Amino acid sequence: MREVCLVLVVLAITVVHADPMGEERDAKQAELDAACEEAREKKIALERARHIEECVETEMFADRETCERFYANYGESAAGRAPLYYDLPECEEAHEYRNSYRNPDR
Q1: How many angstroms separate the most distant Cα atoms in the chain?
Q2: How far is CA 13 from CA 2, 4, 30, in A?
Q3: What is the dihedral of CA 93, 98, 99, 101, to 10 degrees?
Q4: Residue 1 CA neighbour count, 13 Å, CB half
């Protein structure tokens, strides 16, 4: 019985003291993911604005607000389309870091 209690205490300590490297890795991944999304949004915002202006000029819809709603999710995954610009350097770095746990030398 004493051994069982000792094992339970060790397990409890292990759970309480989570892997600090895992927390650091998660923080770094979050930082890289945020940089990726920021870079994507900068690029997408320019294209979205261009599409909205083209929509207004060609009177694709009745008013600007409708054009803005139509292009609100431009660049994101929709209707079976892949999201845009995950090939930017910031996104590739985030992807490589996410997969680097398989190679501890990275």
Answers
A1: 80
A2: 17, 14, 27
A3: 120
A4: 0
CA 42 to chain centre: 14
Distance CA 35, CA 40 (A): 9
Q: How do the pLDDT tens digits run along the chain, 106 residues long?
A: 455 444 444 444 544 455 667 899 999 999 999 999 999 999 999 999 999 999 999 999 999 999 999 999 999 988 888 999 999 999 999 999 999 977 666 5
Query: 12: which 2 tokens?
Result: 């409890």
Let me know if 36 is exposed, middle or buried by CB neighbors in 10 A (0-12, 13-18, 19+). Answer: buried
| pTM across the whole model | 0.71
Using DSSP, state whether 30 is helix, strand or coil: helix
What value, to the nearest 5°, has the Cα angle with vertex 92 and ends 90 and 98?
Answer: 105
Residue given tokens 């490297």 in the structure block: 21
